[in-house]
Structures are given as structure tokens and as C-alpha cells.
């Protein structure tokens, strides 16, 4: 099958800077693409790389798109190299959404603001701002229906963050689930302290909220340290940066990781290969956003609906980091 291929880059400014151990992130950049088949059926996709997380750079993705002809084939889509995982996701999800004739159908996407498969806020984990700002924002998100929150750690001095954490756990309602995300920013000693603190909370009946897991406490190269820590404490550890791509996901599983895997569909790579891996190994996966638009988000949520096993909230509660996107996205859509 042959498809007419078009693409256009975009830039979206965050309402407030997203601060993590990797630094401040102010503008989300990516690429919207379309594939039109011989019957004029259109599929839409999005390439939303995060190079510092393990994907290709935006420039590498743009270079790949620029070197493609105006007409491409199935072979083009399914032979994108593993060094371009965000491109793999963008092209293959566009193929699935509108023009592909494969098992996963072609009716998953019709408009950029189409309803997502898991729309209720309780199915989502909301991202809190780092630092003390979390103490002021959780209530607004709670009123919107969120019951699971993620808070960034490893951003400030650990003593200060532990003080904020102490305030946060005494402020959040009893039925809350809280995730702590270090983005690989802790030392082995700091990770031990956080895990010890969380284990003590679990043993304290006066604090009934649940610390669900600590996400990526150590840098990617310290996999064995995280494996050791996962066996030493009751508080669960989830891998994130360590499993950013399918290759990393398979490698960590092969090395013995049987804990939680945080999967970011937008940068992990091929959706069809991800499905195959998850069905084969039945991993405990938490699906998470890469701050994509509604185009990639719907494809990602479709994967989450298919592949989530343990009823964990998915990490797509990030709308409050952007202005309303409908008009902006529709304009971009019309320009393609």
C-alpha cells in the first residue's frame, strides 16, 4: 500500500516550567504527521521525542521526515530503525489510526479532540509541581477527580524535600495514592533514606494514604543498585528512564527486573512490538505521558487500555501544564 505523507513541526509552551532532576522544561516541541491512502482515508500521528530521556532528538526526527519522499509504503513505516523510537511510534500509530489494514484496525482516531478510551480522572495519575508548590495545587486536582498523584523528588536538597513530603502526607486525604519520581536523581544513600521513610509510613496506621512506588530512584547505569533496593524494602520501585525504549525494556527484563515498568508509549518505539512484548511477558506496566498532544495521547491511551494489567492509574494527568489545545491543534491540523 502507498500513502501520501505530510508533516509539520509544532511548539507548545508550558503554563509553568516543568522542573525535574533533568532541569527545567519550558516548551514542548514535536511533529504532527498524516498518511493518506489511495481511498483518501487519513491517519494522523505524532512524533514527540524527549532526547534527554532516551529517544532521538527533534532534529533527528525532522531529518528523517525531510528525507522521506511524498509517497511512502508499509515497508517505510515498519523499517524505521530502533534509533528513532519516537518516529516508530508516530508513523505506526498513524498507520493504525486511519490507513492500516492490520489486526489493530483503522477506526481508533477520527478527530484530534476525540474522546480517549479511559477518560475518567480517577483512572489517571496527576502530576504535581515539584517543591512546595505541590502543597497548594493538589486540592484543585483532587476537586477535578484525581485520586493518584505523582510528585517529583531529587530536585532540591533531600532534607528540604523530606520536610515538604512530611507536610504533604499529612495534608492529602486518606484515600490518596502517591508516587514519588526521582528521575534518576538520587544517590544510593538518598534512595535508601527515601525507601526507609516510605516503609515507616506504611507501618504507621495514623497515615492511611498509600505510597504506591518510587520511580527511577537511581541513574540508568545503576540498574543493579535498583535491583538490590527493590529486594530490600517493602516500598515498590518502578523503572522509568531505564526502560524508555523497547530495547531497554527487554534488557531490564532479561536481567531479572520483575517489578513495575513505566512505559511512555510516545518514545518507547513500535506499538505492535510493544504489544507482543507485553503479551509475552505479562509485565506490571504503568503507562505514562510524554506531554504529547491529543493525537499521540489517544494512541497511547489505546495501548494502555489494551495492556494494563494491575489496575494502576495511568500517568496522563498533565492537562493543567498546558493551555486548552483544541483551537491550536485544529489550526495545525487544517494546515497539513
Q: What keyword list fits this structure?
A:
TIM Barrel, 38% helix, alpha/beta, 2 domains, 336 residues, eight-stranded parallel beta sheet, Enolase-like, domain 1, four-stranded antiparallel beta sheet, 12 helices
Strand content: 15-25%
Number of domains: 2
Q: What does the main sheet amount to?
A: 8 strands, parallel
Rough outline? globular
* Secondary structure: number of strands: 12
Structural class: alpha/beta
- Beginning-to-end CA distance, first to last residue: 21 Å
CATH topology of the largest domain: TIM Barrel
Strand order of the largest sheet: 11-10-9-8-7-6-5-12
Low-confidence runs (pLDDT<50, min 5 residues)?
101-119
| Overall mean confidence score, pLDDT | 91
Write the SSE topology.
Elements: E1 2-20, E2 23-36, E3 42-47, H1 58-67, E4 71-73, H2 74-77, H3 85-99, E5 124-127, H4 133-143, E6 148-152, H5 158-171, E7 177-181, H6 188-202, E8 210-215, H7 223-232, E9 236-239, H8 246-254, E10 260-263, H9 265-268, H10 271-281, E11 284-287, H11 294-307, E12 314-317, H12 326-335
Parallel strand pairs: 5-6, 5-12, 6-7, 7-8, 8-9, 9-10, 10-11
Antiparallel strand pairs: 1-2, 1-4, 2-3
